[in-house]
Structure formats: structure tokens, C-alpha cells
Amino acid sequence: MNGKAREIAELMSVPEMLEALGGDVSRDTFYKWRQTGKGPRCFPLPNGELRCRRSDFLDWMDDLYGRAA
Hints:
- The chain has helices spanning 3-9, 14-20, 27-35, 54-68, and strands at 11-13, 43-44, 50-53.
- With 69 residues, it is of the alpha+beta class.
- The termini are far apart.
- The mean pLDDT is 91.
């Protein structure tokens, strides 16, 4: 797999992020977090769907864990 293909494979969709959060977070809650700056760093595709680099999602989770400790 070349660099660009690997980079695309490392993108997470909103459903994938919700699943990674254990399935207990609703799509509405996720979007509220995004609007209030509490969600992971994401970017919109031309069709409006959001994607997040897996590394950004994991960094966000690590930050949440660090604040809770």
C-alpha cells in the first residue's frame, strides 16, 4: 500500500468513531461535541460527510483520558 492509500485507510467515518466510543454516543451528541469544540479534529468531504484521521481521534481520546486522571 502506498502512502496516499495508507493515509486514506487511516481515515475514520462518524459511524466508525461512534463504534470506537463503544456505541453509547449518539450521532447528535457527536455533532454537538464538534460544534462546541469538544470533539475530535475532523474535516468535511465534498459530499459533507466528516472524516477524522485515526491518529487525531486517538490523540483526542488520550487527551480526554489525561484530563480524567
